[in-house]
Design a protein that fits this description.
Number of domains: 2
Oligomer: single chain
Number of helices: 26
Shape: elongated
Distance between the termini: 13 Å
Number of strands: 7
Largest sheet: 3 strands, parallel
Helix content: 55-70%
């Protein structure tokens, strides 16, 4: 069995290695930018990228997901470091957050991600695509005040997404603009069918050529002051100078603060937010996967927990699975977990051996690569596809996109979810119990058929229908199809039968009787029981045994 796993891990290297290089090129500036936005040492972002690539991937079973420091946690991290007083104390909270995530995975919390509607997940992908494009436009023109990874509408530098675009006009860099134009021409040509006919263009990825050309143009422009780029317009990995200097950049947590209750609150916050962001990314990544594989979410929480414990122990930021790197991996042809693992190795190797080469990459080149990633996430075809499915899908989709663009990732998803839930509530109110007195024909019986499962969400609809029934009518309440009826609904029907006596309404009950209405427990005895009597609630040893079987 191990041989089979190893074979599958390394059997797609021809596709995974080029994809891992692209993900690596995208990940490095994001790791540094998120660390900067979080108020943490720059190298902590690199550590998190290494751990997300190597450690998390080793335990995860997500075929195409890529983990690393997440922009969605930047504000939480910034506030936590300030509140706890030091970065070392914060690292202790990261370790505890990882432990909490492991516990969540063992107790099946991974199913939470499946409760988010498809329209919201698609909106999240499109929203991320839109925000990537908007945030990269200033970098493409050479205006680099806002760090990479600052994806919130209100930025760390006091600007917002749109004011940054206005400020950019006064700081356009000719050199960066030329690199962007050349890079975009290369990437567009690389996507054309006539290029795909030649084997060499399938072996070498366009983004890699873009980076090489960007470095060469950067060197060429250094001799021309008008086109020369400044250091803010390059990738900027901290250079250690030696292997000993590299090791000195790792930091250990301050475990002596274990009595500080604030640490546990921060840890719980990190665990919950990081887990939610991971689960949403898993759902989105699985939808983008050409093979439509399904990631085991409980295992993913376990893997993320291990990753955060390791990252916190050696001085890294908290990690999650992240959609920008994951989508770049998929769109670059990644086939298996090997691409994410190799990208982690590349970050490690570059940080030790060749930071000076990485530091020659213009941010304009990376902006061009991310333009393509963003466009593929938010293609116009996606908007048309969701629109054709109807308002029930399209409205939460659009609200999610607007929420992400004008607030941040988690807030945008929350807004989309609220709209989707509101539609469910409205649908439960209207159907299948709505009675319109205008359609009523005197003398004909009024039939109200209850559905298979009648929950408390149906209360308003049923109550409204019963109130609208004219006096002197004959009403048939048909529950013959119902497998589950909530006690609140039974109580409403019971009250109606009493009230009907004063309104000259004749009631016929099907699938219900007076005893069941007055004693909901009797109804639950044969219709509402959701678990067979011989089944018992899972106990802690079951979760504990899952810990050993998870390997």
């Amino acid at each position: 069995m191990n041989n089979k796993k190893n074979s599958s891990f390394f059997s797609n290297l021809r596709s995974d290695i080029p994809a891992s290089i692209v993900v690596f090129l995208v990940a490095v500036p994001l790791c540094l930018g998120i660390a900067m936005a979080s108020g943490a040492p720059l190298f902590s972002g690199i550590i998190a990228g290494i751990v997300g690539g190597i450690v998390v991937t080793s335990f995860s079973r997500s075929p195409l997901g890529v983990s690393g420091p997440a922009a969605g946690l930047a504000v939480i991290v910034l506030t936590a470091i300030q509140d706890l007083g030091s970065f070392e104390v914060f690292l202790f909270a990261v370790v505890l957050a990882g432990l909490f995530q492991i516990i969540l995975g063992l107790f099946n919390a991974g199913v939470i991600g499946y409760y988010f509607p498809s329209s919201v997940i698609k909106g999240m992908l499109a929203g991320i695509g839109v925000i990537i494009v908007l945030k990269q436009i200033p970098h493409a023109f050479g205006y680099d005040k806002s760090p990479e990874g600052d994806f919130a509408f209100f930025q760390m530098d006091g600007q917002n997404t749109f004011s940054e675009l206005i400020n950019m006009i006064n700081f356009i860099s000719p050199g960066a603009l030329v690199i962007t134009v050349v890079s975009m021409i290369i990437l567009i040509l690389w996507e054309q069918p006539f290029m795909k006919k030649h084997k060499i263009f399938n072996l070498i990825q366009g983004p890699l050529i873009v980076v090489v050309v960007g470095i060469l143009l950067n060197i060429l422009f250094s001799d021309y002051s008008q086109f020369a780029l400044n250091k803010d317009q390059w990738v900027n990995i901290p250079e250690a100078g030696s292997f000993t200097g590299f090791l000195s950049q790792f930091t250990t947590p301050d475990f002596s603060q274990w009595k500080n209750t604030d640490i546990y609150l921060v840890a719980m916050t990190l665990a919950v937010v990081a887990s939610l962001e991971t689960l949403l990314c898993v759902e989105a990544t699985d939808k983008l996967d050409p093979q439509k594989r399904v990631t085991p979410t409980n295992r993913e929480l376990f893997a993320q927990g291990i990753g955060n414990m390791v990252s916190g122990t050696i001085g890294g930021l908290p990690v999650t699975q992240v959609i920008v790197r994951s989508s770049a991996n998929i769109q670059s042809g990644g086939r298996s977990r090997a691409s994410a693992f190799i990208h982690g190795l590349l970050i490690l190797f570059s940080a030790i051996s060749i930071p000076y080469v990485i530091n020659m990459i213009p941010l304009a080149s990376l902006a061009s690569i991310l333009f393509v990633v963003g466009y593929k996430l938010a293609k116009p075809a996606l908007f048309r596809q969701v629109y054709r499915t109807g308002k029930a899908q399209f409205i939460p989709f659009v609200v999610t996109i607007l929420g992400i663009v004008f607030t941040d990732l988690l807030m945008g998803i929350g807004l989309g979810l609220v709209v989707a839930i509101f539609h469910i509530l409205w649908k439960n109110y209207k159907l299948p119990f709505h009675f319109d007195h205008k359609d009523y024909k005197k003398g004909e019986p009024i039939v109200i058929k209850l559905s298979d499962n009648v929950s408390f969400l149906n209360k308003a609809g049923i109550l409204h229908s019963l109130v609208e029934i004219p006096d002197g009518s004959k009403v048939i309440i048909d529950a013959t199809r119902s497998l589950s009826i909530h006690p609140d609904v039974l109580e409403i029907i019971d009250d109606f039968t009493e009230n009907a006596k004063t309104r000259d309404i004749t009631i016929e009950l099907k699938g219900l009787d007076e005893q069941e209405l007055h004693d909901p427990v009797a109804k639950f005895g044969h219709l509402v029981l959701e678990r067979p009597l011989h089944e018992k609630e899972p106990k802690f040893p079951t979760a504990l045994s899952r810990f050993f079987s998870i390997f």
